[in-house]
Amino acid sequence: MINLVLIMNLAKGKIADVEDWDRREVDLSSLTAGRLRKLIEKEGLAPIDTLEMWGEARDFRNYLAHRFFYENAVSFMTDEGSQAMLDELDKMIRFFEAADRKTRSVVEDTSRKLGITHEVIKEMGEQLVEEYKESI
């Protein structure tokens, strides 16, 4: 989602150089997934089904981070309970992988629509590598 917002900013001329890109990336990295999702929704950068999928991914992430192990603490002690936990985790993994594929597709489609090519992004990456090499 961060890359989607960065590409939008690049297309709008809000990113002048690699340093701007870096600065914005750091700023965006401090936002929650929900705030990033709202930014993307406001700009109309992702279809509704993708926005909904991101909401589900956020919910899965929050469940995993805050409740999964607590809610399964007792069942974890049995073979059946452990297997049920593994099955649930496997389901989440498949969902996160599908969300990642969908996100990549949206980023590529949006990049193409905004005229941001792989070459532009590659050039910025090469510039980042050069700046890093110069700094060490």
**Beta fraction:** under 5%
Strand runs, count:
0
Along the chain, the helix and strand elements come as HHHHHHH
Alpha-carbon distance between the termini? 30 Å
Q: Compute the number of helices.
A: 7
Largest sheet, strands/sense/barrel: none
Provide the structure class: mainly alpha
Basic shape: elongated
Mean model confidence by pLDDT:
91
Share of helical residues: over 70%
Rg value: 19 Å
Unreliable stretches: none
Question: Mind sketching the topology for me?
Answer:
Layout: H1 2-11, H2 18-29, H3 33-43, H4 48-66, H5 68-71, H6 79-114, H7 118-135
Structure description:
The protein has 136 residues and is mainly α. The chain has helices at 2-11, 18-29, 33-43, 48-66, 68-71, 79-114, 118-135. It contains 7 helices and no strands. The radius of gyration is 19 Å and the shape is elongated. The model has no long low-confidence stretch (mean pLDDT 91).
